[in-house]
Amino acid sequence: MKAIEEMESMSDQEIIRRMVERAREAQGIWEKADQERIDAVVREIGKTIYDNAEELARLTVEETGVGNYEYNLKQDKRKSCIIWHSLKGRPSVGIIERDKKTGLVTIAKPIGVVGAVLPVTIPVTNFMSNCMFSVKARNAVIGAPHPKAKRTVARTVELILSRIDKFSVPENLIQCLAEPSIELTSELMKQVDVIVATGGMGMVRAAYSSGKPAYGVGPGNVQCIIDRGVDIGEAIEKIIEGRVFNNGLPCACEQAVIVPYEDAARILKAFEERQCVYIEDEEEIERVARVLYVDGVLSRDGIGLTAHEVARKASISVPKDSKVLLLKGDLRDDNILRKEKLSPVTLFYTYDRFEEAIDIARRNTNLEGKGHSVAIHSNNEANIEALAHAMDVSRVIVNQCATTSAGGSFLNGFGATTTLGTGFWGNNILNGNLDFVHLMNYTKIGYAPDGARVPTDEEIWG
Predict the structure, then answer these.
(1) pLDDT value at position 202?
(2) Dist CA 248 CA 167 (whole Å)
(3) For 258-311, how does the pLDDT look when each residue is reduced to its tens digit (9 = 90+)?
(4) What does residue 351 show for φ and ψ, rounded to 5 degrees?
């Protein structure tokens, strides 16, 4: 009780100062750990989430009020596996590379204290990811949960600390704000050494304005093209899987489907056979928009809903087991549904020439989601690469479910993460997927490589 009363009498600056001081002390000890011990702790963090996924998934949904238990459970288990698998065997201590060709020797060193600003949509996996990356890089980490996920994150920390205690990890290496607020989070961002900010653009901009180095993300607005000559049923199964995942909350969800005009009827029928509903009435589409957005901004009451719940709020009658609402798409400047929608609602477009499909995808992404990702189901390498050249995105996802692939999977080479950078297109310093290597300093030794000599002018210019 005395400690709580003391904390309540302290200023935000003092609360954070004490947390950061303790983190620095722990980090100073941890940076002396050897690789074997570090990797054992990183593995244990991931395994803790895997083993307690049922409890944490249930708590996530109960506290945040968004998403659903089954998909949170699947996400917590899947991400813990993928991220640990990607980290195994990779060095983060001492000399991590010797390049005989250039003569450069790279030594890895920690940054210090990481401030992890966590979203309400994936509080468990995002904090797990930040902990695994930070500890792997020999940093301390302090999490700043969304206020609507504070109990979930606190429980996550409690479970992790109880499991890693057997490795004699220094106290306060992993911490989180018990009573998060905008003011405390802002102060945290000012006092740590580097920030990882995953969430809304307002929070990301605050991280960039903190005066400290920051990795941020941008909104997703993933456009998905179905090319000619593909297995339509297989493509649609993957699109639906991505769009319904956790009621459409992930940033990599397929936000629009762009299909060949001659196959449109067949593709719509295939969607409808899989409990998806096509809506082309303009008034009904407008009502859906009013459910999802308020004054041009995503509504807190419109995210993480099922397709049936969105339709009910829009006074549209659809079967209760409906998976996705497919809305007839257009490219009007005032069509706000062209932006990111954090519920299973997807726009439906048709194209004649493939260049038209690229144009639709590009125009929608330029409206919102620039730098994030685009998906395509295609067997035509020329079309795939034409799309990649034309789109200002960090990822082109080929013949996969975008939602479960953009953040890395066992079936692609994208880095395993929960933080998807959007590059300079999306006002990010991070192009691609956050990894532990982004949370380290590097010292390089420059030896003269064997056989090095100064070339003649003729060799340089000839």
Answers:
(1) 75
(2) 38
(3) 999 999 999 999 999 999 999 999 999 999 999 999 998 999 899 999 999 999
(4) -140, 160
> Among 3.40.605.10, 3.30.1330.60, 3.55.30.10, 1.20.59.20, what is the CATH number of 2-217+433-445?
3.40.605.10
Phi, psi values for residue 10, rounded to 5°: -90, 150
Q: What percent of the chain has pLDDT over 70?
A: 98
Task: Give the residue ranges of the chain where pLDDT is below 70.
Answer: 1-8
Q: Which amino acid is at 242?
A: G
Query: Cα dist. 432→178, 246, 417, 420, 444 in Å?
Result: 31, 23, 10, 6, 24
Residues with Cβ within 8 Å of residue 207, at least 6 apart in sequence = 117, 189, 195, 197, 214, 216
Q: What's the one-letter identity of residue 434?
A: L
Classify domain 222-409 at the CATH superfamily level: Aldehyde Dehydrogenase; Chain A, domain 2 (3.40.309.10)
253 is catalytic: no
- From residue 161, give the alpha-carbon distance in Å to each of 40, 49, 132, 174, 394: 14, 12, 13, 8, 35
In angstroms, what CA-CA distances link 44 with 118, 137, 153, 453? Answer: 21, 15, 17, 49
Place of tokens 């041009």: 296
Q: Comparing C-alpha atoms, which of 108, 114, 109 is closest to residue 194? A: 114
Residue ranges covered by each domain of the chain: 2-217+433-445, 222-409
Cβ-contact 247, 228 below 8 angstroms: no
| Beta partners for residue 78, in sequence order | none
AA identity, residue 226: I
Catalytic hit among 176, 251, 276, 401 = 251
**Is the Cβ–Cβ distance between 173 and 59 less than 8 Å?**
no
The verdict on pTM exceeding 0.90 is yes
